[in-house]
Amino acid sequence: MIAIFDWDGTLCDSIEHIVCAMSDAAAELAIEPPSAHAIRDIVGLGLPQALAQLFPGLDETRRAEIALAYSRHFSSPAGGQPPLFRGALATLNGLRARGIELAVATGKSRRGLDRVLAAMGLSDFFDATRCADETRSKPHPRMLHEILAARGKSTGEAVMIGDSEYDLAMAQQAGVRSVAVTLGVHGRDRLAGYQPLAIVDELPQLLDLEAFSG
């Protein structure tokens, strides 16, 4: 059994950090910043896909400038390190104690995820990780297929846990069961449309689900 987690908005309380970094990046380049709602709505996509959705009127060169500015603002020491959600680490350890493997499937870049994991002392914690810049962005299912292949797991041995419709759509297309969490960007009604096994409001609730009974 393997539990595959999204990162931003699922394990990490980073959504407002992302909103601020994207707004600051646009302002730095004298570009009208998108609304906070619009920025929240693209969290989970790979950065190129997110920027294409947020700034459809800009060419690739200009969007590349925004990407660089965004990455700089997001990783600035002045902004601090977004923390894990309450109960996240205890939940992960609880799943592992039941013999469940742990993985991350994220829209972050490899460099970005590795930096965050290192800052949290979690560099070697997960059994597998995949990032949007080394495969296809969500909601394409390739990211999940690659994790399963790397760990020798079938689709029936996996559950995807995420806060966005991109996570749940990816799972649906991959033939993988999903659990939705309401800690991040998309609300309960929107997530329910993807027929997850459950919708939880706190990560420790995962330990009560039959899918993770071990």
How would you describe what is shown here?
Helices cover 42% and strands 13% of the residues. With 214 residues, it is of the alpha/beta class. The model has no long low-confidence stretch (mean pLDDT 96). The chain is built from 9 helices and 6 strands. It has helices at 15-28, 36-42, 47-54, 60-75, 88-97, 110-119, 142-151, 165-174, 188-192; strands at residues 2-5, 101-106, 128-131, 158-162, 177-181, 198-200. 40% of the residues are buried. Helix 1 packs across helix 4 and helix 3 crosses helix 4 (60-75). It is globular. The longest helix has 16 residues, at 60-75. It has 2 domains: 2-13 and 83-212, Rossmann fold, CATH 3.40.50; 15-79, DNA polymerase, domain 1. Strands 3-2-1-4-5-6 form a 6-stranded parallel sheet. It starts with a strand and ends in a 14-residue tail after the last strand.
What is the domain total for the residues? 2
Overall body shape:
globular
The helix tally amounts to 9
Structural class given helices, strands, pairing?
alpha/beta
Care to give the gist of this entry?
This protein is α/β, with parallel strands linked by helices.
Key structural traits:
214 residues; alpha/beta; Rossmann fold; DNA polymerase, domain 1; 2 domains; 6-stranded parallel beta sheet; 9 helices
Mind sketching the topology for me?
Blueprint: E1 2-5, H1 15-28, H2 36-42, H3 47-54, H4 60-75, H5 88-97, E2 101-106, H6 110-119, E3 128-131, H7 142-151, E4 158-162, H8 165-174, E5 177-181, H9 188-192, E6 198-200
Parallel strand pairs: 1-2, 1-4, 2-3, 4-5, 5-6
